[in-house]
Amino acid sequence: MNQPQSVQSQELMDLTSEWERLFLPCVQECAAGRWGLFVASPVVAAHADWPEAERLRSLARRIKQIHAASGSVHSECDRFLRYCALGQNVRTEPKLAAALLEELRQHNASA
């Protein structure tokens, strides 16, 4: 492994570790009724400041970018970003989070 690959590999490990620390607690909090996990909008900004959700979206985009460059995928990041694309209506966010938790539960049960 050359130096740039090694640096990118370490970055991916660090980003993934942070992602894993934030992911489930944020999704659970959103499912419980908090807005702002899937979409960063002026409506949400007016009602809630959620830096962890913003960081989670940022991490997901970067992790996906690194994986794509190597021809691989991070299935949970891809799933989360798919939900972000669906989450344009902030009123549905808790329902989307609950659906995501259920999807994860079913995926883990079949694994």
Put the structure in a nutshell.
By secondary structure, this protein is mainly α. Helix content is 76%, strand content 0%.
Question: What does it look like?
Answer:
- With 111 residues, the protein is mostly helical.
- It has one domain.
- The chain has helices spanning 3-31, 42-47, 51-69, 75-86, 93-110.
State the distance separating the first and last CA atoms: 31 Å
Number of strands: 0
Query: Number of domains in the coordinates?
Result: 1
Count every helix, treating DSSP H or I runs of 4 or more residues as helices. 5
**How do the helices and strands follow one another from N- to C-terminus?**
HHHHH
Mean pLDDT: 86
What fraction, in percent, of the residue positions are helical? over 70%
Structural class by secondary-structure content: mainly alpha
